[in-house]
Amino acid sequence: MSLHNEIQKKAAEHLWLNRPWVILTGAGISTESGIPDFRSPQTGLWNQYDPMEILSTEVLFNQPELFYKIGFPVLMQFKQARPNLAHGILAGWESRGIVKGVITQNIDSLHIEAGSKRVLEIHGHLRTAHCMKCLRTISIEKLESFVRDVQIPPRCRCGGILRPDVVLFGDMLPSSFEQATKLVQKFPLLVIGSSLQVSPANLIPSLAEKLMIINLEETPFDKKAAFVLNGKASTMLHFLDEEIKKLEEKA
Ligand code: NAD
Fold it and tell me: Which amino acid positions bind Zn(2+), per UniProt (predicted)?
């Protein structure tokens, strides 16, 4: 057995012995579903746009046309994606008691679609939108049809501007962020597909006592982690899942 496989096998034992885990996912878990992340070279969204600028409250409030003509279509592309093997394995681990819950920075709803039950979406989601004036909630499909057919920026019947329920740069974090910080202090943390560079989500690993990381590239928290597996999320999780199944059979 290669050293690489030996480390992955030990990581599977570590996961099994210290269960249940809290999972923190970033854009990297959804790249295999066809959604580019923000930072990978060549494919990262930042090579085409500057999300910090366009997907911001500053632009939404002061240049809503720019937000709806450039930023909103980028977000809506995420709606075409379907969960991949990695999302599916995590949903299975929750039903088998290996995962306590998933904290995600993603807005693509793919964990929920894959069957995960306890999901804390700390950057919101693309299922609904609301009016910034009267707070009326509408479906994202309705918002999309307003943008397509009626007007930019889309307006509520009260005259207020409508916005998707995602957390934009410059927004306050939702209450799910506080719940996430509490959860991560009770259980070990497995981070999957995050550069851990975006604040304040990168505070979460600093609160965890036990840490493990699966990512294609290095992160600033690698030194803190008991195991760092550098590879694709689906490949790594599939290997770990096969090893855990053997341990489950023995138990
Ligand atoms: P990031 O872009 O900063 O980092 C993604 C990391 O995933 C990178 O380090 C990359 O090496 C790694 N990666 C890429 N493909 C991988 C794979 N197949 N397996 C394992 N690792 C892989 O992403 P982030 O840390 O999540 O932060 C970016 C912000 O962008 C978040 O706030 C998030 O809300 C938002 N975002 C969300 C989506 C989405 O909903 N799918 C997509 C893009 C950006």
Answer: 131, 134, 156, 158
Residue 201 near residue 180, CB atoms below 8 Å: no
Q: Does the beta carbon of 8 sit less than 6 angstroms from any atom of ligand 1?
A: no
Query: 38 in ligand 1 pocket by Cβ < 6 Å?
Result: yes
168 is in an annotated binding site: no
Helix and strand element counts for the chain (H, E): 11, 9
CATH 3.40.50.1220 fits 1-35+83-123+173-251, yes or no: yes
134 among annotated binding-site residues: yes
H helix or E strand, kind and range, residue 177? helix 175-184
123 is annotated as an active-site residue: yes
Q: What is the pLDDT of residues 182-194, one digit of tens each?
A: 999 999 999 999 9
Task: Judge if pTM exceeds 0.70.
Answer: yes
